Amino acid sequence: FSAPPARADMVVSVDVIEHIEPECLDDVLNHLAKVTGKILFVAISTIPAKRYLTDGRNTHLIIREGDWWRPQFEARGFTVRRVWPAKDEWVAMMQAAGG
User: How buried is residue 69: exposed, middle or buried, by Cβ count under 10 Å (0-12/13-18/19+)?
Assistant: First the structure.
């Protein structure tokens, strides 16, 4: 697990991105753009979690609506092809730049 992941045609991220430290989000999204060859599928919770970290923060460190998430990915060259209606999360399939 210490080696960086290889580029893959399809990358899936479910219930992960909302847990990223806000100051690390740009790096994580840029990395996803780098390793996604064709398709990225994400499901990102848009509500607080039921659990808290020992420092009192909610485990969902980034709580934003889909309207906020979409341009975050588009700014990195992804084209959102489909968004599924889902309660309390943003579920989307995107095409990578050049994919």
Answer: buried
